[in-house]
Amino acid sequence: MVQIGRSYKIGRLVAIIVLIVITIIYMIPIFYIVNTAFRTWAIIKEYPPRLMYKPSLGSFIRIFTARTVYPPGKELTNEEKSKLTWAERITLKETNEAIIRTGDLPRRYLNSVIIAVVSTVLTIVLGMLTAYGFSRFNVKLKDFSLFFILSTRMLPPVVVVIPIFLLFRNIGLTDTHLGLILLYTCFNVSFAVWVLKGFIDEIPQEYEEAAMVDGYTRFQVFLKIVLPQAVTGIAATAVFCFIFAWNEYAFAFLLSRKVAQTVPAWLPYQMGVLGYDWGAAAAGTFLFLVPAMVLTIILRKHLVRGISFGAIRK
After folding, report:
1. Alpha-carbon torsion (24, 30, 34, 35), positive or negative
2. 100 — phi, psi (to 5°)?
3. Which domain holds residue 177?
4. Does one domain contain both 55 and 150?
5. Are residues 20 and 68 in the same domain?
6. Residue 109: what pLDDT?
7. Which of 86, 139, 277, 302 could form a disulfide with 235 if both were Cys (CB 3.0 to 4.6 A apart)?
8. Are the beta carbons of 311 and 203 closer than 8 angstroms?
9. Residue 65 lies in a domain
10. pTM
11. What is the pLDDT of residue 286?
């Protein structure tokens, strides 16, 4: 017994060490992004890289603004410098630029929020209804239909991106919020149906039958019995669907240019008058990661539960 207990402790210690190492490896890109975002323009270009430096908000200012370089040799007077805002002073010091207006990031960020949130809501609504139908009714060719639905999610974007572009161009959905919302919803519904069906299958049908005996309609049963008990599955599915729509690049790059362009399609092209702005790109990437990270942390318990594909057991 002593030997077994000692082996268990050693195995657990090894597992913890392995998990810590894996976590550190996965955190390296995030650390690099954050580290670059808080470096000044000059320090970013230094080689070899400097480990110790004074953090700066210059990269965040540049990602939020449009700027122009002061003419060569022009020096601001002390009176002109005193009238500058704190953001303008940082920009002047780091890159000798003047802020002329707010940049495109807020608009692109808003596009990403609208498209990701609306497509996720539509996906959950359609996926929940479809999953309930497959779970509770005798649908003809159920297995074939479920496989066909899932097969649409297996297609890589590069395979269908050209036909979709031609279709959207002909019906006038290119560079529109509606076009990307419908596209992301179609791609995510198949995933949502499969995941949500697993949760609904584990909800005892006896609850619904008892409710219908008491006079509830099928739709009332769905709203008052099934939905509350499937909230864990809904939350887990919503997180995955949101992350897909939030991070998607290929379709957003091809189908949007100005009006509906999202952050992933806009961020790689941060070419300023002084060259590619790696600091601004890192700052924008960091800000773009925050919503998905916060949502995942808030719903982490549902995500862990969602891995088991179930909500209630008989």
Report:
1. positive
2. -110, -25
3. 106-307
4. no
5. no
6. 93
7. 302
8. yes
9. yes
10. 0.85
11. 92
3-state secondary structure the chain: CHHHHHHHHHHHHHHHHHHHHHHHHHHHHHHHHHHHHCCCHHHHCCCCCCCCCCCCCHHHHHHHEEEEECCCCCCCCHHHHHCCCHHHHHHHHHHCEEEEEECCHHHHHHHHHHHHHHHHHHHHHHHHHHHHHHHHCCCCCHHHHHHHHHHHHHCCHHHHHHHHHHHHHHHCCCCCHHHHHHHHHHHHHHHHHHHHHHHHHCCCHHHHHHHHHCCCCHHHHHHHHHHHHCHHHHHHHHHHHHHHHHHCCHHHHHHCCCCCCCHHHHHHHCEECCEECHHHHHHHHHHHHHHHHHHHHHCHHHHHHHHCCCCCCC
- Quote the CA–CA distance of 197 and 195 in Å, as a whole number: 6
Categorise residue 175: left if φ over 0, alpha if ψ from -120 to 50, beta otherwise: left
Residues whose CB falls within 8 Å of the CB of residue 218, separated by 6 or more in sequence, listed in order:
212
Phi, psi of 102 (to 5 degrees): -70, 140
Clarify whether residues 277 and 146 are in a common domain.
yes
The structure tokens 């969602």 sit at 306
For the record, the structure tokens of 63 come out as: 């990602």
Q: Do 241 and 147 fall within a single domain?
A: yes
Residues 182 and 242 occupy one common structural domain: yes
Confirm whether 238 is domain-assigned.
Answer: yes
Tens digit of pLDDT per residue, the chain (314 long)? 555 667 777 888 888 999 999 999 989 999 999 999 999 888 888 888 788 888 899 999 999 988 888 877 777 877 878 888 888 888 888 888 888 888 889 999 999 999 999 999 999 999 999 999 888 888 787 777 878 777 777 777 778 888 899 999 999 999 999 999 999 998 899 889 988 888 888 888 888 888 888 888 888 888 888 888 888 888 888 988 999 999 998 899 889 888 999 999 998 877 665 677 888 889 999 999 998 888 888 877 766 665 555 444 44
261 and 128 in a common domain: yes
